[in-house]
Design a protein that fits this description.
This protein has about 110 residues and is mainly β. About 10% of the residues lie in helices and about 45% in strands. It is built from one helix and eight strands, in the order αββββββββ. Strands 1, 2, 3, 4, 5, 6, 7 and 8 form an eight-stranded antiparallel beta sheet that branches. A hairpin with an 8-residue loop joins β4 and β5.
């Protein structure tokens, strides 16, 4: 329930120390997945999903299976551009060429 702990935990997910580890964090009913290369995520159709660059810009971000897809885009951590996208079906792919993006699926558990 503390914002400082939440932000510290998200930063930890993006740390270099976890770069080789497949991590999925369940924060309440929300699922948080750091992406450094490519990840396929599953959720119910029309579920919300946000992509947030952590620790600096994320470069070469591409997605498939989302309402608003990205094609080799650069994401700035000071922008809200990739908040509240939506799954088209039950599966989406997020790829990052350089940097770290956290994929957040609100109510991922409640919706299953």
């Amino acid at each position: 329930g503390r914002l400082d702990h939440l932000l510290a935990n998200v930063a930890l997910l993006a740390s270099d120390g976890l770069a080789g580890v497949a991590v999925r964090w369940l924060a309440g009913n929300d699922l948080v997945i750091p992406v450094r290369d490519e990840v396929t995520v599953e959720a119910r159709a029309r579920a919300l999903v946000s992509l947030i660059p952590i620790g600096g810009p994320a470069r070469g971000v591409s997605t498939s299976g989302l309402r608003w897809e990205l094609d080799d885009e650069d994401l700035d951590p000071t922008s809200s551009r990739t908040v509240s996208n939506q799954f088209l079906g039950n599966r989406a792919t997020v790829a990052v060429r350089d940097g770290v993006v956290v994929v957040i699926i609100p109510d991922a558990i409640a919706g299953t």
